[in-house]
Amino acid sequence: THQWRGIIEEYRDRLPVSDSTQVVTLREGGTPLVPAQVLSERTGCEVHLKVEGANPTGSFKDRGMTMAITRAKEEGAKAVICASTGNTSASAAAYAVRAGMVCAVLVPQGKIALGKMGQALVHGAKILQVDGNFDDCLTLARSLSDNYPVALVNSVNPVRIEGQKTAAFEIVDMLGDAPDIHVLPVGNAGNITAYWKGYTEYAADGVAARKPRMWGYQASGSAPIVRGEVVKDPSTIATAIRIGNPASWKFALAARDESGGLIDEVTDREILRAYRLLAAQEGVFVEPASAASVAGLLKAAEQGLVDPGQRIVCTVTGNGLKDPDWAVAGAPQPVTVPVDAATAAERLGLA
Ligand code: F0G
Asked: Which Gene3D superfamilies match (predicted)?
């Protein structure tokens, strides 16, 4: 029998681990690259979705977390801490269980999706809701890790980026080369940094013949990189990317500029439209923040920025089940029927 071994074992020679490293894994990575028919038709391109919601805790964060927790354990840490809009905390909590460590998480009060909170709780993390936003949580987490015996596992920890770059490897391994354009949501900007690092390494070693243009999309109410200044009170329904001062800001600019790419914004309305399109027309259920990549692609296509015939990958970063409120909101209530086939058939429009 053969199963995917997780990103560290699959890409061991390209990651900062040694032969003696004991790997903490939930067999993350190896996620589906799904051809997107409707998006391909709309853009005249070959569009694929990298479905990161298929990771063990339901988001791309697991790629970075297997590295961060593996390293923390190797260094003898007994406890880890992170600031999070939800997914990082869910991932850290799960991997800490595997490693037998205590996990502390700091989340912005009232601004994380219920599914993510449930994950951190059920994995036994110690949760503090901070009276502030994500940026405040990160400041607090850094301060605690500087002054107390607890290891920081946010993406400011460089091994997180190392783990997350493997998504770019998987795409090249599947397609035989890098795409022309890679589109993804941008929050704290760790992931765009990681993808660019992965693509750059594969190109430098000749595994890929080229590198993609990197297109990142922030939510309009939380778009500090687009505005060129810190957003003090970020807002968006896409709580995962509700961030006003991204830690990897300058790396995101480097990815944009070195690749000839762009970083732009999409409105909450555009995000929700893409969210519904993905679910209703591609069969892929993602959380709202994840739909920012697809919203961005559709916006760019409307702006005439997408030449037909290109190969494009959109990362959809997290599973729709994390935040189902947006799926239910505005949808018609299912009707109740008795246990009666004739009535059911009639209500289903079959009769
Ligand atoms: N999509 C989802 C679903 C996310 O959870 C995040 C980040 C992003 C996109 C943006 O990625 O920060 O690397 O630019 N979530 C972090 C968290 C902040 O705490 O879970 P990024």
From this structure: 3.40.50.1100
Q: How far is the CA of 127 from the centre of ligand 1 (A)?
A: 18
Most ligand 1 atoms within 8 A of CB, residue of 62, 65, 82, 85 to mutate? 85
* pLDDT greater than 80 at residue 1: no
Tokens encoding 261: 């790419």
| H-state helical runs in 148-184 | 158-164, 166-175
318 lines ligand 1 (CB under 6 A): yes
User: What residue owns the CA closest to ligand 1's atom 7?
Assistant: 240
State whether 222 and 296 are in the same domain.
yes
* Contacts of residue 21, Cβ cutoff 8 Å, sequence gap at least 6: 8, 70, 74
Can you say which residues are annotated as belonging to the binding site for pyridoxal 5'-phosphate?
87, 187-191, 317
Q: Is ligand 1 within 6 A of the CB of residue 120? A: no
Is ligand 1 within 6 A of the CB of residue 218? Answer: no
The pTM assigned to this predicted structure is 0.97
End of a domain among 157, 191, 225?
157
Question: Do residues 146 and 167 both lie within one domain?
Answer: no
Q: Are residues 142 and 166 in the same domain?
A: no
Give, using CA atoms, the residue closest to atom 15 of ligand 1: 240
Q: Which domain holds residue 213?
A: 7-59+159-327
Contact 123, 113 (CB under 8 A): no
ipTM of the complex: 0.99
Q: State the binding site.
A: 87, 187-191, 317
223 & 137 share domain: no
User: Tens of pLDDT along 28-55?
Assistant: 999 999 999 999 999 999 999 999 999 9
> What CATH number is attached to the domain comprising 257?
3.40.50.1100
* Secondary structure (DSSP) of 44-101: TSEEEEEEGGGSTTSBTHHHHHHHHHHHHHHTT-SEEEEE-SSHHHHHHHHHHHHHT-
Domain total for the chain? Answer: 2
